[in-house]
Design goal:
binds pyridoxal-5'-phosphate; globular; alpha+beta; nine-stranded mixed β-sheet
């Protein structure tokens, strides 16, 4: 299947109509929920609803929500949509969370044709449950799909899938301060066969959800400079959110842990000198302080992930009177800037960890520190602003909040 073959929702219309009416009757039979999915008209793909007959009892759910950790517990349901060369995207379903059964020869197990996304649903202080810029995740998902020779999913379908799952599992959206429901959409190649001459002709899109507390347990993180490993090279898959990037990164992350650091920092593939990003977060450098503070993040060279949090901060900085730019910084400049006091704060940002200060940097040739044990003032202001928009205590001037319920 070509990347564009599956983007045309028209091919799915007939089956969509059939499954929509089936969905309505199944829904009525299988659940006491009065809702049926009317999103099919908007997305071109409808969803048959097969709610779980045995969702986790409320008491058990409350026990999990009291201390959710990150990515360890999952809600009662998931969304699946299939794609074939003949039918395009079809067979959208909301169904109980559970195992996916695939033949051992399925191509994702061998050739790692897989992409994913990560975003959160927030229970805002005034009641609504919202997502932050889900269309941006949908767009990035499709850019990843193109790079991995996978079919694109219509953005409206991607967003509708999230809405359906969050609506069904709304009791799983945490109420505790700073907690949220992490959403993990992903797509895998499902062709059963070992031929490697062309991409899989069939795919499965899935969304699962997991209640999330803070990603890092406490305080600023320490980072290890990966001088022996490369995450991504020019022309590679670094800017795609594909599982293989993370598989190739675990050795670097293990090296970081072995050196007593929390996270790995990836450097450029050619000179192993220019700072790119962290294992699962982008980096920002704060220069100067007070009214002369400005922020800089490594430019998108094609080898790092274009983070949605990164993008938001490039806008929120100037909103707060803090100039923001994309640039580049070498390891030597990082160290010299911290030693001279020119660099006053460094922080990592991403959906999971929000904004986390970096305090200690270690590499093969030595270590240094930046700032103190507490987050610096610029880091704190940006974090407050971002969380304020996400949780609804501050206005949303850029229209980033997408109301789900
Ligand atoms: N860089 C990498 C490698 C990531 O995995 C992530 C998380 O998705 C990020 C950066 C931050 O991206 P975002 O802000 O969209 O979560």
């Amino acid at each position: 299947m070509t990347a564009s073959a599956a983007t045309d929702g028209a091919a799915t219309t007939a089956s969509a109509a059939a499954s929509e009416s089936a969905a309505a009757s199944e829904s009525a039979a299988a659940t006491d929920s009065p809702r049926t999915d009317t999103g099919g008209a908007r997305t071109g793909i409808s969803f048959a609803r097969h709610p779980s007959g045995s969702p986790l009892p409320g008491q058990e759910r409350a026990r999990i929500l009291a201390s959710p950790g990150f990515g360890v517990a999952f809600t009662d349901h998931m969304i699946t949509i299939r794609c074939t060369a003949e039918r395009g995207w079809h067979d959208g379903r909301l169904e109980p969370y559970g195992p996916i059964s695939l033949p051992p020869a399925t191509s994702v197990f061998h050739y790692a044709q897989e992409i994913f996304e990560g975003l959160k649903a927030y229970r805002q202080h005034s009641g609504p449950i919202v997502a932050f810029r889900p269309q941006a995740n949908a767009a990035r998902f499709n850019r990843s799909a193109v790079r991995m020779a996978m079919p694109q999913l219509p953005e409206a379908t991607f967003v509708r899938a999230l809405e359906l799952l969050v609506t069904q599992d709304r009791d799983w959206v945490p109420t505790a301060e700073g907690h949220s429901l992490y959403l993990r959409p992903f797509m895998i190649a499902t062709h059963p066969g070992l031929g490697v001459s062309r991409p899989s002709p069939s795919y499965l899109f899935v969304v699962i959800a997991s209640p999330a507390g803070p990603y890092f347990s406490a305080g600023p993180v320490s980072v290890w400079l990966a001088e022996n490993y490369t995450r991504a090279a020019p022309g590679g898959t670094g800017e795609a959110k594909c599982g293989g990037n993370y598989a190739g990164g675990f050795a670097g992350q293990q090296e970081a842990l072995a050196h007593g650091c929390d996270q790995v920092v990836w450097l450029d593939a050619v000179e192993h000198r220019w700072v790119e990003e962290m294992g699962g977060m982008n980096l920002f450098f704060v220069y100067g302080s007070g009214r002369s503070a400005r922020i800089m993040t490594p430019a998108l060279t094609g080898t790092l992930l274009p983070g949605i949090t990164r993008d938001a901060l490039l806008t929120l900085g100037p909103d707060l009177g803090i100039p923001a730019e994309e640039g580049r910084i070498s390891v030597e400049q990082w160290r010299a800037g911290c030693e001279s006091g020119e660099i006053t704060e460094v922080f990592a940002c991403g959906t999971a960890a929000v904004i986390t200060p970096v305090a200690t940097i270690k590499g093969a040739t030595g270590s240094w520190t930046v700032g103190g044990a507490e987050p610096g003032p610029v880091t704190s202001r940006l974090k407050e602003q971002l969380l304020g928009i996400q949780f609804g205590s501050l206005p949303d001037p850029h229209g980033w909040i997408h109301k789900i319920i």
